[in-house]
Amino acid sequence: MSALNSLPPGPTSHPIVQLLRYSFRPLAFLEDCARWGETFSFRLAGFGDMVQLTRPEDIREVFRGDPAILHAGEGNALLATLVGDTSVLVLDDAPHSRQRRILMPPLKGERMLNFFEVMQSEALTTARTWAGEDSVRADTAMQSITLRVILRAVLGIDTGDDFAELEDSMKRLLTEARHPLVLVMYNLFPPKRHANSRILPFYRLKRRFDECLYRVIAKRRAMAAGQRPACLLSDLQEMQHDDGSGISDVEIRDAVVTILAAGHDTTALSLAWAFEQILPRADVVARIEAELADVCEGQLPRPQDIAQLDYLDAAVRESLRIRNILPFVVRVLKDDFTVGGVTYPAGVILCPSIHLLHRREDLYPQAETFRPERYMERKFQSHEWNPFGGGNRACLGQAFALYEMKVVLATLFATLTMTRPEGAVSKPVRRGIAVGPSDGARLQAKYRNNLADA
Questions:
Q1: CA–CA separation, 390 vs 331, rounded Å?
Q2: Separation of alpha carbons 440 and 332, rounded Å
Q3: CA-closest candidate to residue 33, choices 356, 345, 344
Q4: Mean predicted confidence (pLDDT) in 75-89
Q5: 349-352 and 48-53 as β-strands: parallel, antiparallel, unpaired?
Q6: Distance separating alpha carbons of residues 52 and 43, to the nearest angstrom
Q7: Using CA atoms, how far apart are residues 50 and 30, in angstroms rounded to an integer?
Q8: Angle between helices 398-415 and 310-322 (to 10 degrees)
Q9: Among 323, 293, 335, 330, which residue's Cα sits nearest to residue 311?
Q10: What is the Cα 435 distance to its own chain's centre?
Q11: How far is CA 121 from CA 58, 142, 304, 412, in A?
Q12: What is the three-class DSSP state of 53?
């Protein structure tokens, strides 16, 4: 059902034109649409009627709403092309809750903290590479760090032929998935019709990755339970559904790819944006360096230091506010739902707008200014600061991503002096469904002291 006539005002151009505008300049499109009001609607060809919500109180109503009425998985159907039909990202209702319970424990708590050494080791490898170059792309290096870390966390391996092939094929696969016209291509080449294509690169690379991953799954199943390394894959193979049946290989594949893709690329882009925001601010850099010197006592950061780096944590959160990776999240209505005093019918897609929420002057005075102190002055609720979404669909990897960002940034700031090249400009551009820096957040680096040799 189309509710276009009863929806809030918005652009009246053809849905194909709106889709192209959003594909090429996503943030500019949203900001232009905001002239229609705090709540507005648009229609992207192939994706339906979308109502953008920018008021915190409206977003809170959606995040607290009945998940049976507000389907996020259905709205994420595009992602199934990569993560599979049993991924927690594309499921709703009981299946979603079941998969979420399975994936939650390995991504937080003590298990997460066990990856400090590999996170720091990868950061130090990057520091050595950067110090020998005139100018480097931060996004490329961050993608390498986060991919290697998440592969180890998920599969429990960091060397060997399987690791090398999975790393290489995932890099190539995600390069295809980052195409700026991915939303257009989803309409032109529907997965159900083209999944077996031997011509389209994405599907060829996906089959190559899956073949290797299924080999790893089979090898791990052949091992005795007590011999399996501590990782998400081992956890999944030991888990059971409520009826006592085991997790199928397809479900395991989809869970693994979900964490690999979502836990790698978005974190890498967030780190790249953090450099873009922090490095031009000498005062922010000075405070980060002073905090590191005080907490870490002139040494490389230690595991116990990370939780004490309050200003660095605030800088990370402020970067995620200004440079959010996903402009909005979606909820497909399965029944009438009232938000902000307006009742919307089934079929409408409600979209809490992360980008526009984070630009509200009444919530973030001088919203365009990078000011980490905001997070030391007050605590923002999930309906006020939500780069990781919210409600029952809040990102499973939020704690892991924040921890990894702080470990990597703390290590690099303790080791290197970094600056942005003169005249460098990073414009927000589409990277698949995400938004990344046009220049990769280029930077220059040199060794600060002998910590790089630690």
A1: 11
A2: 33
A3: 356
A4: 91
A5: parallel
A6: 11
A7: 12
A8: 110
A9: 293
A10: 10
A11: 43, 13, 16, 11
A12: strand
- DSSP H or E run through 70: strand 70-71
- 3-state secondary structure (DSSP) of residue 445: strand
> CA 440, 421, 446: angle at the middle one, nearest 5?
95
Question: How far is residue 21's CA from residue 131's CA, in Å, rounded to a whole number?
Answer: 39
* Residue 269 C-beta-side C-alpha neighbours within 13 Å: 27
As given in the structure block, the two tokens for residue 373 are 């102190």
Which pLDDT does position 5 carry in this prediction? Answer: 47
Which among 288, 294, 297, 326 is positioned nearest to 405, based on CA atoms? 288
Quote the tokens at residue 431.
């990277």
Q: How far is CA 261 from the centre of its chain?
A: 9
Tell which wins on pLDDT, 113 or 9: 9
pLDDT in tens, 291-334: 999 999 989 999 999 999 999 999 999 999 999 999 999 999 99
224 burial type by CB count under 10 A (0-12 exposed, 13-18 middle, 19+ buried): exposed
Helix axes 282-296, 249-278, angle to 10 degrees: 110
* C-alpha span between 307 and 407 (Å, rounded): 10
pLDDT of res. 108 = 63
Distance from C-alpha of 301 to C-alpha of 161, rounded to nearest angstrom: 32
Domains (ranges, CATH) in the chain?
A: 4-449 (1.10.630.10)
Query: Cβ neighbours of residue 369 under 8 Å, at least 6 residues apart?
Result: none
Please report the beta strands in 99-205, taking only residues with DSSP state E, as ranges in sequence order: 136-137
Own/partner contacts of 168-171, CB < 8 Å, gap of 24 or more, are: 169/205, 169/208, 169/209, 169/212, 170/209, 170/260, 170/261, 170/264, 171/143, 171/147
- Please name the residues in contact with 5: beta carbons below 8 A apart, sequence gap of 6 or more: none
Count each helix (H run) and each strand (E run) in the chain, helices first: 20, 12
